[in-house]
Each structure stands twice: as structure tokens, then as C-alpha cells.
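Researcher: I'd like a candidate sequence for this fold, 370 residues long. If you have to choose between options at a position, lean toward the conservative one.
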């Protein structure tokens, strides 16, 4: 393991940690990363990256279009009460297996000469120092990118905030061709199932629910269209499970320590925004470290987290109250433009103010009549 001094030490080499390391190295800072796992690191994930996340990745010099990722044009919502879909107003999304994405990030980090220590636990952090596999490392900045259950967050005094919701996700890969140009999100009373194309004959399917005891295969009959397409089809690769947490922290910076990625708070996984946020945060953090102004990172972090969190809250209301969900779906069917506008807002192509009074009124009216 690297010992000595570095400008930036990153605890956790998942997507957030590696993206921040890459962005910092590209700005001329010396960087070391430690992760207790070994690459390629897999994780339960929907494996879709939204257009704004791809833009942030391209700014890191990574173009997934040239690296075997699979494009999707927008989002389709399906429920017993109806279906609606919309294309992204700008750009496209990409699906890529999580382990492949990790491989791409590791290769980029290696090409920049970043010190990478795999199979190495970060035991403690404090201002200016991390204890890594028993050895001290001095660093001007410490970045905690150690995920949802961050053990380092409390050591930085940054554990104040609130957990609003925990849900449980299960991922399978099916050896099947895509049937749709969209990422599909299917809704039922037991939760949501969403499908992302990640290869020519490779579909990532995630079931997410508030009930930790229901598994994807058990829930499948509640989603008639998916049941018809997926039941009995061959799986490829391992099933994985994970917890999706809606968490908001009061602050993500203490002195020269910054939280990043899921350790810095998160919206529900159904938003599909986790990775996009991570890549945007990484760039903002690297800019702030270069400028010596982590307060700027705190401000940008707050701004870019707002929309995913609001969208996550709306979708959790739809999850909690089937009758509201059914009305909203009927509203979407009658005012299909509204779903397109909400998607544009979600991907930050338009601001909430640009939703338009007429569209909002006609959508509200169709929900009331539904
Ligand atoms: C079910 C589910 C579905 C999802 N679907 C999507 C989706 O479709 N699209 C999307 O964009 N996002 C999705 N997300 C969210 C996305 O997976 C996360 O936002 C993303 O993984 C966050 O990356 P991270 O690097 O912050 O954390 P992680 O990926 O958790 O990485 C943290 C890293 O830190 C390491 N680590 C932890 N502690 C230590 C330590 N003490 N020492 C050394 N290393 C340590 C771990 O080994 C790990 O590699 C989903 C999440 C879930 C749970």
C-alpha cells in the first residue's frame, strides 16, 4: 500500500471514489484510493445511467458509447391502470453491467497513475490523516466514498441527518434480447420491477420493495407483462441484493474531509439517479479541492441532490398509495405530454418553472377526473 503524503486520499473505490480520484488527478492533484474489495466490484444495481450522468462521465474522459454500453432512449412506466413513455429531450441513457463499469473506471484511474490499493481496509480518518491497513497516510483532503453504510462518516462528525426510508432491491440478469428502446419501470402494489438492457442478450432486472422478504421470482406474477416475458427464462450471472436508502444529511463537509456518493446521502433507487449524481458530485468535489474551497462543493452537492430527492419522494408516494398511483397513471394516459415534461425535469433539461401552467392544470384535472 502507498504510504506517505498525497493531496487527496479517497476511502472507497466504488463508482464515486474512482470518479473523484480521476477528476482530481486530471486537475493535477496526487491521489491515492483504498478499497477493501477487489475489482471488478459488482453490486445490486439497475445498471442504467441517465443522460446527465453520461455527460459528467464524458467530462472525466470516459465515453461509454465506445465501450460496449447499450443505449436507451427514455423511460416507460407500466401499471395495471395504464402505460406511458417518453424519450429524453436531450441525449440518451446507457446500460452497462456494474462490474464492467467498474472495470472501465479502474482502467482510467490506472492510466492516470493514481495509487490504487485493493483488498485494503480504511480503518479510521481524521483531519489530514487516514489509517489504512494499520499505516498512517497524510493527505490534504480526505474523501469518504465508502457507500451507504459508511463507517467513516461518524468519524468525520458528519452523521447528522435523517433516514426517511429503506427499501430492498434484488437483481437478476436474464439472457434475453431487449423488446423496448426504453428502460421500463413496472409498478404493482408490492413494489416496482425495472428492466435495463445491458448487452445484446443481457437484461438487468431489479425488483425493489418495502418488504424485505419478497424475492424477484415470487413477485413476478404481480407484473403480468414481465411475468409473460421473463418467467422460466435463463439467468446469466449471480443474483444480488442491496438496500436502497433515502437519506438526507445536514452537511457533507467538515474541514478538509468530504463525503461523496451514497455515503453523502441518497435518493431511492427507483429514481435511477444514483450513478448520475455520483459522477456529477465527483467533478464538483475535484473543482472545490483544486480551488481550496470545500464550501463550494457543499453548495453544489445540495443543489444537484434536490431534484432526485423530490422525484424519489413523489415515487414513494405512488408506492405507498396504490389509489394515488392509479390516478396518476390515468392522468399520464390522458396527458402524455406531462410524463415527457416530468422526465425532462428529472434529467434537469427543464426547470420546475418550465413545466407550464396549462399542462399542470390539465394534468391535475385528469387526475381528479380519473
Ligand atoms: C437495488 C439498487 C438499484 C439501483 N439502481 C440504480 C440504477 O439503475 N442507476 C443508478 O444510477 N443507480 C442505481 N442505484 C444506486 C447506485 O448503485 C449507487 O448510488 C452507487 O453504487 C453509489 O456508489 P458509491 O461509490 O457511493 O458506493 P458503493 O458502490 O457502495 O461503493 C463504496 C465502496 O467503498 C468500499 N468500502 C466501504 N467501506 C470501506 C472501508 N472501510 N475501507 C475500504 N473500502 C471500503 C466498498 O467496498 C465499495 O467498493 C441502485 C442502488 C440499489 C441499492
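Model: Candidate sequence:
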Amino acid at each position: 500500500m502507498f504510504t506517505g503524503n498525497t493531496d487527496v486520499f479517497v476511502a472507497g473505490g466504488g463508482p464515486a471514489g474512482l470518479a473523484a480520484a480521476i477528476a482530481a488527478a486530471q486537475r493535477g492533484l496526487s491521489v491515492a484510493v483504498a478499497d477493501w474489495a477487489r475489482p471488478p466490484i459488482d453490486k445490486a444495481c439497475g445498471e442504467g445511467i441517465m443522460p446527465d450522468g453520461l455527460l459528467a462521465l464524458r467530462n472525466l474522459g470516459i465515453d461509454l458509447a465506445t465501450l460496449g454500453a447499450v443505449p436507451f432512449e427514455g423511460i416507460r412506466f407500466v401499471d395495471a391502470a395504464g402505460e406511458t413513455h417518453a424519450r429524453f429531450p436531450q441525449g440518451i441513457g446507457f446500460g452497462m453491467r456494474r462490474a464492467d463499469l467498474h472495470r472501465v473506471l479502474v482502467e482510467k484511474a490506472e492510466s492516470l497513475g493514481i495509487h490504487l490499493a485493493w483488498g485494503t481496509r480504511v480503518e479510521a480518518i481524521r483531519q489530514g490523516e487516514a489509517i489504512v491497513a494499520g499505516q498512517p497516510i497524510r493527505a490534504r483532503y480526505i474523501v469518504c466514498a465508502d457507500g451507504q453504510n459508511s463507517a467513516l462518516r461518524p468519524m468525520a462528525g458528519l452523521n447528522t441527518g435523517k433516514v426517511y426510508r429503506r427499501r430492498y432491491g434484488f437483481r437478476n440478469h436474464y439472457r434475453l434480447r431487449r423488446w423496448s428502446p426504453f428502460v421500463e419501470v413496472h409498478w404493482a402494489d408490492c413494489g416496482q420491477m425495472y428492466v435495463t438492457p445491458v448487452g445484446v442478450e443481457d437484461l438487468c432486472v431489479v425488483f425493489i420493495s418495502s418488504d424485505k422478504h419478497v424475492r424477484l421470482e415470487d413477485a413476478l406474477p404481480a407484473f403480468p407483462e414481465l411475468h409473460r416475458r421473463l418467467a422460466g427464462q435463463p439467468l446469466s450471472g449471480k443474483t444480488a441484493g442491496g438496500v436502497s436508502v433515502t437519506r438526507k444529511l445536514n452537511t457533507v463537509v467538515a474541514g478538509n474531509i468530504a463525503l461523496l456518493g451514497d455515503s453523502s446521502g441518497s435518493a431511492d433507487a427507483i429514481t435511477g439517479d444514483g450513478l448520475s449524481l455520483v459522477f456529477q458530485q465527483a467533478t464538483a468535489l475535484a473543482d472545490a479541492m483544486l480551488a481550496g474551497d470545500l464550501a463550494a462543493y457543499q453548495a453544489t452537492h445540495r443543489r444537484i441532490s434536490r431534484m432526485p430527492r423530490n422525484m424519489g419522494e413523489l415515487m414513494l408516494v405512488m408506492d405507498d398509495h396504490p389509489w394515488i398511483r392509479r390516478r396518476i397513471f390515468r392522468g399520464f394516459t390522458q396527458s402524455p405530454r406531462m410524463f415527457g415534461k416530468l422526465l425532462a425535469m428529472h434529467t434537469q433539461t427543464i426547470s420546475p418553472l418550465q413545466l407550464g401552467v396549462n399542462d399542470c392544470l390539465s394534468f391535475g384535472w385528469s387526475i381528479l377526473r380519473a
